[in-house]
Write a structure and sequence with these properties.
Rossmann fold, 2 domains, 6 helices, binds ribulose-5-phosphate
Length: 223
């Protein structure tokens, strides 16, 4: 069992009867979906799930988890997902995939947000290992790129082969590196103020617990 599987199993063990559970997207979230489906099948765990992407929806469906659509849900008990970076104050960087709009909506609507990582995801500051993914309305990308540039950010449109990468909801992505060390919470507030940005990958003050496995040893950090 690898570290991602170990945190996923741990989180699945903590799910209780009657919960409405948000499912993240990515390889760690996949392990969680599998572990949850096993408990649903073998322990008759009574739960319902809401998925953050088409991929997670398909996986949950194939494994027999009772799905609800986001449109019909006002609040969830817990949202469980991976992350690309986790800073010491539990600010996250997410969104290397194409589904961060739904991911953030579910994280915000949940009473608890559990983040599942292996040790490679812990960083001193957001943006240490990856640029910040910023989803923009297609017609606004240059205006947003200019606003980012005024803040010291170099936004590059994400490519997909010879074309441009398009998210599940038709946005373009400006992967943006900053020339200075980033204060994640401050950048979150500044990005929220730029017109034309649909969503971005900084998840500030949303995670309630981070489960981290490093070479088989599990640690839990809460806010
Ligand atoms: C997708 C995400 C993922 O949770 C993040 O990229 C981590 O992925 P993985 O679990 O495959 O390492 O934010 O938008």
């Amino acid at each position: 069992m690898n570290d991602k599987q170990r945190v996923a199993e741990h989180a699945a063990e903590k799910i209780q009867n009657g919960m409405l559970v948000g499912l993240g997207t990515g390889s760690t979230a996949n392990y969680f979906i599998e572990a949850l489906a096993r408990r649903h099948l073998h322990e008759s765990l009574q739960i319902q799930v809401v998925a953050s992407s088409v991929v997670s929806t398909i996986k949950a469906k194939q494994l027999g988890l009772p799905l609800r659509s986001m449109e019909h849900v006002a609040e969830l008990d817990v949202y469980v997902d991976g992350a690309d970076e986790v800073a010491p104050d539990l600010t996250l960087l997410k969104g290397r995939g194409a589904d961060l709009v739904r991911e953030k909506l579910l994280a915000k609507a949940s009473a608890a947000f559990w983040v599942l990582i292996d040790n490679s995801k812990t960083v001193e500051h957001i943006g240490q290992n990856f640029p910040i993914p910023i989803e923009v309305m297609p017609f606004a990308w240059q205006l947003v790129q200019n606003s980012l540039s005024a803040m010291g950010g170099q936004g590059q449109l994400r490519k997909n082969g010879d074309g441009l990468f398009v998210t599940s909801y038709g946005s373009l992505v400006l992967d943006t590196a900053f020339d200075k060390q980033i204060d994640g919470k401050r950048l979150n507030a500044e990005l929220n103020d730029i017109p034309g940005i649909v969503e971005h990958g900084i998840f500030a003050q949303l995670a309630t617990a981070v489960f981290c496995s490093h070479e088989g040893v599990l640690a839990e950090k809460t806010v």
